[in-house]
Design goal:
single chain, alpha/beta, Rossmann fold, 5-stranded parallel sheet, 7 strands, about 10% strand
C-alpha cells in the first residue's frame, strides 16, 4: 500500500487523479464524471492509507475487499487503481473501447475489482455476501462498499441493510456518496430520502456523518468505523457532485460527460490552476 499523510500531498493526489479521469473521458468521448469527482477525496483516503491490499497480487488472501455499487462512477476508481499499480496507466487510454479492460461499468476481471456492476442498488448486497462469508470463515479481512444516495430509493438496499444488521457484520463499512444529485435532477425532486442517517440507525447500523471533502473528517471516520463492534457501519459522506470544476458542481447535467465544445479545456485549466496553487 502507498501511504499519504501530508495534507498538501493528499490534495495534489486528488487533483492528479481528477486530471487523469478528465483525460480518460475526453479520449473516450463519454463516461461519468460528476459522482466520481465528488468521491475522489475518499478514493485517495482509501488507497493511500486505509485499505490493506497488494497491487502486485490482487488476490492476496489477507486483502480488504473494495466494492463499488454505483458503478458508473468508475473512471475515478480506474485512475486510482492504475496509479497504485493494479494495471498499467496505458489502459486508461482505452476506456469504453470494445474488448478493452476498462468498460463503462466495472467487471471482476479487472485487477483490484471485486464485483461487476451495472444495475444500481446491488453492490451493498454483494458486499454483505462477502462480509458474511469472511465471518463464517473466521477471517479478519474488512469489506468496504461505495453506494450512492440515489440508490437508496431502491428497496434492495433496505433488504440488505436488515441482513447486515441481523448478522452483526462489523467487518463491513459502507460509504454513501450523499451529493443530492442524480441523472434526472436532485434526489429531493425525484424521491426524497428524508433522514437517511436516522433510517440506517433504525435498521441497526452505526452511522457516521462527515464532509466528504475534509481530510481530517474522512480519516477519523474510518478510524472510528474500524473500532465499531457488533454492527455494520455506514459513513454518510456529504459531497459535491463535480467537485473542483466550477461549471460542473451540483449540476445534474454533468452526471455524465458529454464532451461538449470547450468543456475539456475549461476543466483542465481549473485543475491545473488548483495544482499550481499547491506549489
Amino acid at each position: 500500500m502507498q501511504k499519504i499523510s501530508d495534507k498538501k500531498d493528499f490534495k495534489k493526489k486528488v487533483l492528479q487523479l481528477k486530471m487523469d479521469t478528465l483525460e480518460m473521458l475526453n479520449k473516450a468521448g463519454s463516461g461519468h464524471i460528476g459522482g466520481g469527482y465528488g468521491m475522489a477525496d475518499i478514493w485517495v483516503a482509501l488507497y493511500y492509507g486505509i485499505l490493506n491490499y497488494d497491487s502486485s497480487n490482487p488476490d492476496w488472501v489477507e486483502r480488504d475487499y473494495m466494492l463499488l455499487s454505483n458503478g458508473h462512477t468508475c473512471p475515478i476508481w480506474y485512475a486510482t487503481l492504475a496509479d497504485v499499480g493494479f494495471f498499467s496507466k496505458s489502459e486508461l487510454n482505452n476506456l469504453r473501447k470494445i474488448d478493452s479492460l476498462l468498460q463503462g461499468h466495472p467487471k471482476v476481471m479487472i485487477p483490484g475489482v471485486e464485483n461487476s456492476s451495472g444495475p444500481l442498488g446491488h453492490g451493498l448486497s454483494q458486499a454483505i455476501g462477502i462480509a458474511l462469508g469472511l465471518k463464517l470463515d473466521k477471517k479478519d479481512n474488512r469489506v468496504y462498499c461505495f453506494v450512492s444516495d440515489g440508490e437508496q430509493q431502491e428497496g434492495q438496499n433496505w433488504e440488505a441493510a436488515m441482513s447486515a444488521s441481523k448478522w452483526k457484520l462489523d467487518n463491513l463499512i459502507a460509504i454513501m456518496d450523499n451529493n443530492g444529485v442524480q441523472i434526472e435532477g436532485t434526489t429531493d425532486e425525484i424521491m426524497p430520502l428524508g433522514d437517511i442517517a436516522g433510517k440506517y440507525r433504525a435498521f441497526g447500523w452505526e452511522v457516521i456523518e462527515i464532509d466528504g471533502h475534509d481530510y481530517d473528517q474522512i480519516e477519523k471516520a474510518f478510524e472510528d468505523a474500524i473500532k465499531v463492534s457488533g454492527k455494520p457501519v455506514m459513513i454518510i459522506a456529504n459531497t459535491v457532485s463535480g467537485k473542483g470544476i466550477s461549471f460542473m458542481e451540483n449540476d445534474p447535467g454533468f452526471h455524465d460527460w458529454k464532451g461538449e465544445e470547450g468543456d475539456y479545456e475549461k476543466a483542465k485549466v481549473e485543475l491545473e490552476e488548483a495544482l499550481n496553487s499547491l506549489g
